[in-house]
Amino acid sequence: MKILFLDQSGKPGGAELCLIDIAKPYRDRALVGLFADGPFKTLLQQNQISVEVLTTQSIQVKKSSSFLQGLKSLRQIIPLIIKVVKRAKGYDLIYANTQKALVIGAIASFFARRPLVYHLHDILSKEHFSQTNRRIAINLANYFASLVIANSQASQTAFVQAGGRANITTVVYNGFEPKIYQTCESDVRQLQQELGLIGKFVIGHFSRLAPWKGQHILIDALAKCPQQVTVILVGDALFGEQDYVQQLHRQVTALGLKNRVNFLGFRADVPQLMAACDLVAHTSTFAEPFGRVIVEAMLCGTPVVATKAGGAMELIEPGINGFLVQPGDFQELAQVITTCLHERHKTATMAHNARKIASQHFDVKIINQQISQLLSSKFN
Ligand code: UDP
Fold it and tell me: In angstroms, rounded to a whole number, what is the distance separating the alpha carbons of residues 378 and 93?
């Protein structure tokens, strides 16, 4: 089956990293069409996946945009649709991986007479999207998509609650290559030395810097923790959240935590960094659609604490393979951190369980089989 994948982003967020794994088995007969240039294109090329940037400028519609703002972008959208229709004629299927890809892919699927799959990596709720954007996504998916692959039950439920057709949806979790997360001890030790982490209790936060990812909650929690606890913030402001980055730096200074918080920016060595941590904290203040970093921490054998909402609740069974805290509650988070600091043996057992369960449930080979079976049963 020849697949035209579409994704709006030039930067590698969770949805884009997931797309690399899905596209890999189809790389000799697939094209990824991007709506923006950037490092994601390079990552696809490094994985020998054909890629083409289909725009000269990224589409100026945001998750919170109104209908009128959306209309203004028509001048950009129409030529893009025409290009996608042309490309789609050489493929059996259009696979939209993001919301803007759904909009373009849906219309193109109609004109090119190709079936449409929508991979839903979002929670279509009012916290994440404007009402206009939710309506557009639901209506286009309902009318044009033959299949909606939701990345968690939480994303599927939100889709159906917003009016999406339940009978076209199915849940497929993200897949991971367990081997990548088996790190070499000496590499990890060297990293700890380079970053000055030896002898400290290190909490890692791995996510783009954005208010709803809740880095500020972790900093507030850190202020309540013993001195040896330090934080590394791994990730960048991918979608222009520069004000938030400034706010985080001001917060760190105001709380006197400059020596205990290290901003590392975007990194490609997440497994090694996670292995260098004593705990990975996931602090999203709204429901997380899936939460790749939670599974990645598990695969690294590092204990993980996440917020009790969305996909995280499907990944963590508290006390068995991790901890859950209320979103936004920095006091509760500080308590969990202190427990992990004092009860290392118990926490290590939990992390060991988590690694075992995660390598069974999220193995990319099994996940890719699920996707391949779904596609061939629907479209062959
Ligand atoms: N990530 C990365 N480098 C960084 C920060 C994050 O490679 O500096 C990766 C992280 O390992 C994870 C993904 O980005 O695989 C983020 O996915 P997640 O589902 O946690 O969040 P999303 O970006 O989809 O909101």
Answer: 11
Residue 290 Cβ contacting ligand 1 at under 6 Å: yes
pLDDT in tens, 80-115: 999 999 999 999 999 999 999 999 999 999 999 999
With CA atoms as reference, report the closest residue to 174 among 363, 377, 376.
Answer: 363
CB of 284 closer than 6 angstroms to any ligand 1 atom: no
Fold identical between 3-175+363-379 and 178-361? yes
C-alpha to C-alpha distances, 368 to 21, 128, 187, 314, 374, nearest whole angstrom: 8, 28, 30, 20, 10
Q: Of all atoms in ligand 1, which is nearest to the CA of residue 293?
A: 20
Residues 6+ apart with CB under 8 A from 108: 81, 84, 85, 88, 94, 114
From the list 172, 129, 124, the residue with the least C-alpha distance to 151 is: 172
Residue 68 pLDDT: 65
* CATH 3.40.50.2000 for the 3-175+363-379 domain, yes or no: yes
pTM for this structure? 0.95
Other CB atoms within 10 Å distance of the CB of residue 236? 17
Q: Does any ligand 1 atom lie closer than 6 A to the CB of residue 123?
A: no
Domain positions in the chain: 3-175+363-379, 178-361
Tell me, using a 6 A CB cutoff, whether residue 159 lines ligand 1. no
- Spacing, Cα 52 to ligand 1 middle (Å): 23
Give the pLDDT confidence score for residue 57 in this predicted structure.
Answer: 75
Q: Give the Å distance between the CA of 221 and the centre of ligand 1.
A: 22
Q: Is 15 in the pocket of ligand 1 (CB under 6 A)?
A: yes
Q: Which CATH architecture has domain 178-361?
A: 3-Layer(aba) Sandwich (3.40)
Rounded to the nearest whole angstrom, what is the distance from the C-alpha of residue 148 to the centroid of ligand 1? 22
| Cβ of 286 below 6 Å from ligand 1 | no
